[in-house]
Amino acid sequence: VKRDAYSYKIVQSKHTDMTSFFYDDIKKIFDMCKGQNANLICVAPSSEIGQFSPTLLQIAKKISAESGVPNENIIVKVIKKEKMTTKVGYDSRFHAVDGTLAVTRRLKDNEKNILILDDTKVSGCTTLECVKMLIPYGAQKFMSICLGINSTSP
Fold this sequence. Notes:
By secondary structure, this protein is α/β, with parallel strands linked by helices. It has 5 helices and 5 strands. It has helices at about 5-15, 20-30, 55-65, 90-95, 125-135; strands at about 40-45, 75, 100-105, 115-120, 140-150. The strands form 2 sheets. The protein has a 3-stranded parallel beta sheet, with helices on both faces. Helix 2 (about 20-30) packs across helix 3 (about 55-65). It is globular and about 45 Å long. The chain starts with a helix and ends in a 5-residue tail after the last strand.
């Protein structure tokens, strides 16, 4: 599959800082939604690389500095499963992400509305896994912003 220029930038963002390319659009979405009253910004670990995207880390820091909403990466990758080698679908994505994340600390009383930044939405499984991990720690409301959506998503 041939990638367009925007998709190629998303792939690059997983390994190098592409903040200047994405920041204005992500900040515009954040402002349009008024952050959905977010009181904590978290970056979702990339399923593909098993760590945080340097671009998303910088975007989270910058939005935090400008909006006053704290930024802390309390969701971490704890298990790296084998890459999917068969047809990509919801079941295989769910299996690839299920049980791979953990939360590093309890949420404070004023951290109930969480903004999750993610690189791409393929099936939504990474975001759902983040939500699943945060609910027992007291999170109540979630908003997710991603750099792009895979057009082959179910």
